[in-house]
Amino acid sequence: MIPIRKEGMAVCEKCGAIGVKHSFYTKERRFCSQACAKSFNESPHMSSNNSACQQEGGPAGRRCSRVFQQKTAALSQRSTWIRQRQVRRNYPSLYGFDWVEMLTEPGFVTPPISCFRHAPLCDTWASDVSVGMKVEVENTDTRQATANSDPQSYWVASVISLMGYKALLRYEGFGNDDSKDFWVNLAAEDVHPVGWCASKGKPLIPPRTIQDKYTEWREFLVKRLTGARSLPNQFHVRVLEACRSRFRLGMTVELIDRNRLSSVKVAVIDMIVGRRLLLRYEGSVPDEMGFWCHEESSLIHPVGWSQTVGHHIDALPAYLERCAKKVSLTNDATSELFNEMKPTQGNGALKFKEGMKLEAVDPLNLDHICVASVVKVLRQGYLMIRIDRQEADAGDDQVEDPGEFCYHSSSACIAPPGFCEANAITLKPPEDYEGRFRWGDYLRQNKATPAPESLFGGRDENMPQLRVGMRVEAADLMDPRLVCVATIAQIAGRLVRIHFDGWSDDFDQWMDISSPEIYPVGWCELAGYRLETPIAPGMV
């Protein structure tokens, strides 16, 4: 056993730097620099007063109670996460595809975690994790037999390369020999910062293949670890926090009616996995398939949203009445839980007019961008759109047109006339249109007005820097319970065409480049969500 911390080495609790313990700061030698010590002490989690928490009756006591409840919830979620990982280890097929077989393919490239604003640790991953950093992981190259699933020994490894959440590791001592390199999910519970084994009484044993390479392994590790970095303090706690949903089971929301896109229905959250929500329409039969989406999806809204913006809703009179009276129930998902899109000055949201022509992604055929019309301008920047091939139902004007669907005026899924031509995309004209489609001719024939380009949001510098050919995990928006292996096939403005590996191009889907349904490689494994295996060639 080679205890790192006990032999004069220390790991900075703020930045993860490894160094000689006596050179560290504070009485307990917890930080590598004054800056780390200062910033750590200024962190929100250091502001609690333990003595005040003992006063159960006062405000501090109530604060302590809330903290206790939060920690209890965190422990519960942590236990669930650990169980999921144990199941994954023992029954990997239940969680579907493993990226490992693809990661070493020539030209394989993934977007950095920072490209996904909804992904766990998207803001800190680049500073927390880097090539060359050291971690402690299970030593699988050992003679010791394992009577159960618990690792019997560990060893220090270096990060050789990064692909999303996946990291290629090499045990210390192998030098340039890559014969025993292996991939792990760096955010997994079984990857530890240097010093973890010493703190837990776990043995550090050199891999069998190189055990005779050095006689003084302790001295070797001290040299290798001095000045190196490891995972920062509380890294896995922050992973858990980042995976926790702001919603809770049983909450009520308003959700797009998947059978009638022009309407919304009341739905209840039935399950939460990695901030993806399984929703069931209120009043649906128990066997009816639910609806999966990410909590940041534009398809879900707070209670009362439809009445606020003027969207059609199919709900019981009692629900409509209490929404009109602004009466909230305990389980109502209120607007504070949503990042609702609002019209901003200069985006032209209030200048859209009924009858204006534009180009829109067809929500029923997501590989098509079609000629479309604004049929109604709602409040707060929302628009009802209809693909021009569809005709409105004859009859009562008060009944919503089933061919309509709602997009926000800032959505990447609508664009001005000419967008497709400018981006070498085939625009789908109305089905009854004869001859080659030209916007000028079509507008004259219909005496219609094009939606001005100034009304649409353009590219911004904060957009994810995705590139064609990058690999991702993406939900199939036509069957959103499925998250699949996918490739970035095309980028046009704020739209990205997602190609599902193994499927023909006919199944491609246009999505917002910032869609919360596009995930980095390794997200499914991290969240405990099944990743669908690509279809083998010839099966489609």
UniProtKB/TrEMBL annotation:
Keywords: Chromatin regulator, Metal-binding, Nucleus, Repeat, Transcription, Transcription regulation, Zinc, Zinc-finger
Protein's name in the database: FCS-type domain-containing protein
CDD domains (alphabetical): MBT_dSfmbt-like_rpt4 (cd20100), MBT_dSfmbt_rpt1 (cd20119), MBT_dSfmbt_rpt2 (cd20122), MBT_dSfmbt_rpt3 (cd20125)
Repeat (MBT) residue spans along the chain: 97-207, 215-316, 317-430, 437-534
Main location: nucleus
Subcellular location(s) of the protein: Nucleus
Lineage: Eukaryota, Metazoa, Ecdysozoa, Arthropoda, Crustacea
SMART domains according to UniProt: MBT
InterPro entries tied to this protein: Mbt, MBT_dSfmbt_rpt1, MBT_dSfmbt_rpt2, MBT_dSfmbt_rpt3, PcG_chromatin_remod_factors, Znf_FCS, Znf_FCS_sf
Domain called FCS-type: residue spans: 3-38
Entry GO terms, CC: nucleus
Source organism per UniProt: Daphnia pulex
Annotated GO biological process: chromatin organization; negative regulation of DNA-templated transcription
A molecular function GO annotation: chromatin binding
